[in-house]
Amino acid sequence: MFEVSTVGDRGLRIQFGETISPDTNQQVRIFCMLLEKERITGVVEWLPTYTAISIFYDPYVISYDILKQRVLGMKDKIYHTDLPAAEVIHIPVCYGGEMGPDLLTVAEQNGLDERDVISIHSNKDYLIYMIGFTPGFPYLGGMSDEIATPRLSEPRPAITPGSVGIADQQTGIYSMETPGGWQLIGRTPLKLYDPTSASPILLQAGNYIRFFPVSMEEYKTIEQNVQNGSFTPHTETLQEK
Looking at residue 238, what is its pLDDT? Predict the structure, then answer.
């Protein structure tokens, strides 16, 4: 699929598919890379999602019709462009207790004990489909249905940054303090969003996350090292499966 439509009076949307899948997401990411290379005059920004890209432009510099033709002319390049190798970022998580107050709920909802939930959650590489909702918040794919759990019936007014949660078939990490209704199972001491950093967003779409459990003592040590700038998460190149 490659369908082009309008978005308001200064936007263009490219639809690559209707369902969430790694293949569709790969096309989205490749096209974003092509947009970065092309640098079309008049294009202000583009926003990738699970299955589409919205491109916003200055109509006083480039018209919709001309931009559409430029976009259509780039279509075939998708199939002749390779993405760089994906990386796996290892994310430490302290599960349960005050860090994960809903871990028991997730376990009971699925007929498991808390150790089972931790094992299932941390025994997976999660594709980062996109970053959104708040700066640095990763939309992840690949969570096991064995630990899928509905959202809270009443959202919490404030979630601590770094909280790891589950909502239905998804898992994610809160990048900043916001209200939220996800079931909280743990917390990472890493900063997913740091506006004072030269690279304020820790994660990138197209890479993978691998969670690993740490104790409260290990959590506090990593947290201190993060604060003084001496901690760098372990990263490795994804091995083709």
Answer: 80
* CA dihedral for 145, 147, 153, 154, sign (positive or negative): negative
Q: Which two tokens stand for residue 133?
A: 């909702």
Specify the pLDDT at position 49. Answer: 87
First-to-final CA distance of the chain: 26
What pLDDT is recorded for position 81? Answer: 86
Tens-digit pLDDT profile for residues 45-98: 999 888 999 999 999 999 999 999 999 999 999 988 888 888 999 999 999 999
pTM of the model as a whole = 0.85
Token couple for 71: 């976009």
For residue 239, pLDDT over 80 is answered with: no
The answer to whether 141 and 22 are in contact (CB under 8 A) is yes
The domains found in the chain, sorted by start residue, are: 3-80 (3.30.1360.40), 87-237 (2.40.100.10)
Q: At what angle do helices 22-38 and 64-74 cross, to 10 degrees?
A: 120
